[in-house]
Amino acid sequence: MTTKTVTKPTARLIEVFSAIQGEGLNVGTRQIFIRFALCDLRCHFCDSAHTWSTPTTCRIERSPGLRDFEIYSNPVSLTQLIEWVKRQNILPLHDSISLTGGEPLLHAQFLVEFLPQVRTVTGLPIYLETGGHRPEQLANILPYLDSVGMDFKLPSVSGESHWQEHAKFLQLCYESQVEVFVKIIVSDKTDPTDLEDAGLLVAEVSPQIPIFLQPVTPLAASEQLTQNPIFAPAPEQVLIWQALMKRFVKQVRVVPQTHKMLNQL
Ligand code: SF4
Q1: Closest C-alpha among 34, 162, 37 to residue 97
Q2: Could you tell me which residue, 56 or 224, shows the higher pLDDT?
Q3: Angle, helix 192-205 to helix 163-176, in steps of 10 degrees
Q4: Which sites bind Mg(2+) (predicted)?
Q5: Beta strand extents in the chain (DSSP E only)
Q6: Cβ(217) to ligand 1 under 6 A?
Q7: How would residue 89 be classed by pLDDT, with cut points 50, 70 and 90?
Q8: Phi and psi for 106 in degrees, rounded to 5?
Q9: Which of 122, 148, 190, 216 is the most buried (most CB within 10 A)?
Q10: Residue 135 near ligand 1, beta carbon < 6 Å
Q11: Mean pLDDT in residue range 5-10
């Protein structure tokens, strides 16, 4: 008789901490952030390049917002992560849990087991921040999500191109009735044709899906990933692009990264 080996789910993490969400529909709310390691994209504007590979250790905040980090080894077990999130969840502080990265969907197998349990123990809604290019993995965890922020990667700004995957991804979100919004990072290099194509794609799924135009936060010289530095768009460009996108969807908001202004993580 062969015995089946049951492997316990583990995840590779960067950090767990409590902070104010600085982007998109949940801007200003307090969240427990779980930042997963690994990303399979290489966006030119990435401010999280340290997540691209797995560090041997992760840092876990002890008390919400106090930055009293403890260091633990990767990978971490599901039960351990639940304990850390429970420790952060001092009522009534947090509005939701944010799954971020890196690309959290690279951990979909782990999340399928983790999410129902963390929902039960905290009672908090679950928010996914994602590059929006892995619809198959999204489908596996959609039943456990409350809201999704999908980054739309414009080739002219990010260097990435995932039009078909974005369309499938948004369609899945729309059909599941999870709350979804689209975030588009814009820079001085933004090609308006890319923006139009993105607006059309979103509107074909539903013109009710809100779009957030997020002017890029320029990276420090030491963080630049390409030879050509990326700059924020001029104010008049942003006004023109908001008007352009309003031809496609009802809500187009322009919101820069407010956590950077507040000097938050
Ligand atoms: S998807 Fe996010 S983490 Fe990955 S390269 Fe792009 S900006 Fe960086």
Answers
A1: 34
A2: 56
A3: 30
A4: 48
A5: 10-11, 13-20, 30-36, 57-61, 69-73, 76-77, 96-100, 126-130, 147-152, 179-186, 211-215, 252-254
A6: no
A7: very high
A8: -70, -10
A9: 148
A10: no
A11: 83
Instruction: Assess whether the C-beta atom of 42 lies below 6 angstroms from ligand 1.
Output: yes
Please determine, for residue 225, whether its predicted confidence score (pLDDT) is greater than 80.
Answer: no
Cis peptide before 123 (omega within 30 of 0): no
Ligand 1 atom showing the smallest separation from residue 45 Cα: 7
CB 253 within 8 A of CB 241: no
Ligand 1 site-directed mutation target among 15, 40, 45, 48, most atoms within 8 Å of CB: 48
Query: In the predicted model, is pLDDT for residue 86 greater than 70?
Result: yes
Q: Supply the pLDDT for residue 1.
A: 58
Q: What are the Cα distances from residue 134, in Å, to 44, 113, 141, 186?
A: 19, 18, 11, 22
27 CB under 6 A from ligand 1?
Answer: no
22 is in an annotated binding site: yes
User: What sign results for the dihedral spanned by CA atoms 201, 205, 211, 217?
Assistant: negative
100 close to ligand 1 (CB < 6 Angstrom): no
What architecture (CATH level 2) is domain 12-261? Alpha-Beta Barrel (3.20)
Predicted local confidence at residue 119, as pLDDT: 97
Domain boundary assignment for the chain: 12-261
Please give the model's pTM, rounded to 2 decimal places.
0.94
Q: At residue 2, does pLDDT exceed 70?
A: no
Does ligand 1 have an atom closer than 6 angstroms to the CB of 203? no
Q: Is 59 helix (H, G, I), strand (E, B) or coil?
A: strand
21 contacts 260 by C-beta, under 8 angstroms: no
> Looking at the chain, how many residues does it have?
265
Minimum-distance ligand 1 atom for the alpha carbon of 40: 4
Q: Any binding-site annotation on 58?
A: no
